[in-house]
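USER: Study each token:
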Amino acid sequence: MGCELGQEVGYSIRFDDVTSEKTKIKFATDGMLLREILVDPLLKRYSVIMVDEAHERSLSSDMLLGLLTKILKKRHDLRVVVSSATLDAERFLDFFTADVDEKTHGKKKEDYGYVVGIEGRMHHVDMHFLTEPTSDYLERAVETVLEIHTSQPEGDILVFLIGRDEIETAIDMIQDRVGDLDPASRNLQALPLYAGLPADQQMYVFEPAPENTRKVVISTNIAEASVTIDGIVYVVDSGYVKLRCYDPTTGIDRLAVVPISKASATQRSGRAGRTRPGKCYRLYTESTYSTLEATTPPEIQRSNLAPVFLQLFNLGITNIVRFPYLSNPPSSLASRALELLYALGALDSYARLSKPLGARMAELPLDPMLAKALLNAPTFHCLSEMLTLAAMMTLQGSAFVSFDPEKKLAERAKRAFAASEGDHLTLYNVYEAFIGPGRKDPKWCRANYLSFKALEKAVSVRRQLVRHLERLGIMESNVFSGEDVRRVGGMASVELQERLRRCLTTGFFAHAARMKEDGSFVMVDGKTVVWAHPSSLFFHRKADWVVYTEILESKDKIFIRDITSIELDWLTEYAPEYYRVKQK
């Protein structure tokens, strides 16, 4: 529209709002619109709401669609557009018109909504399948890339693999084999793309390749719909994706490698036809394609529902069983979410939102466990420090960066910030060092193998969390009873460290484990064995009891990350409803 960003056109994402009173068109995440419903239940600010990429069936978009069906009953002037390139349109229409009774209302479903098909500007894409299944799709993907490079006309290549390890292995394999080609065919530039890649490195994939050079982008499914890379003519599809599935019994997020759906296959092949006719090489047979599921299982059927349920309760929806879900969540996931919210004190014994704790937890844009710890911080006289920790824990990528040739130097730099009590206090030390005099600059970050952009983001997030707490009547204060000197050389003092560890336990008590002699941990069920993630300080250190932020299973091993040492007594002290000590 030729306007300045944030004026007539703006955007709103978590911890970043670039809009103004003049804004007429706003791009927002579905999660941000859910939070707006808290203060504007009928979304009266908007006349049209468009939910794009609805086929992805994220938790937030499913919740938003359910709430929009309720809002439409009150606001007949509101227009809702649900769009996607691979959408089961009739199903969505039926969902929105489920309550329409033609005899009662005297109107047909078509009077409330209809399906519109828009011919895209897609170019033709030739499909190529394997004639026989492959036993090693990674090897076959690399072979296919080199075949395209040596035999096909100009045009960049996009390869879909499942994760960082595979992507880095594939790039190494391509670089090794390009040297064996004739000199005229060695001009191949391989670039990675995955969510944990530092932002500046992600931007390389969008830049044109050097003259007379073909670019090959090796990506996770992030390139399926989230981003569009110009110049892609050839797509190589491995046929697999890594899906996160939550186990309600153990609380473990399992990263399972599964075949993609037909909808995902269509999205991937479409990347080849954006600018001109292209080709898609599917590393599976046509008969295998016919057996794929139509769509990927929605997140609501494989995720921790505690954050979602907390938001629904805060919106005044007390009967979550009767909420209009596009797909019903399994009862085991629902039960686990309610149990956790009750243990955190967010719900009372009647499964109603507790006041003020539950309502305050729901107001904060944080995971319920972290929200509980932050709200408890004034009790432990460590609100300022917990604000810093909460901001650092929201970073999607690590504050630390390292590259294979420099890993030892990066580890040495990390040890300079390390706290013996664990990863959370190490993150606190990093932040304190970053905001010190003369250090808040990219050069200092590079020298210490830290991400300048990530730490800048943490400073911004912390500032916004302060504002959120102020709206709840909680003020950040530097007054600390009983201790005049709070830090020693930028590090938290011993007494303050204990207060922080206790405070973290009040939120993350459900994530507790005990270290065994071999360096592994056993969860409180006494059965499940987990390991410290290689990025954790406890990968090489000893502890007794710990709490952790995240747990996930990958490569047949269960890892915990962001770990802090605690005392066993704290678990029963701060979560008596959750833990009871067995008498022998």
Observations:
- Residues 478-489 have pLDDT under 50 and may be disordered.
- The longest helix spans residues 452-471.
- The longest strand covers residues 545-554.
- Residues 125-297 form a domain with the Rossmann fold fold (CATH 3.40.50.300).
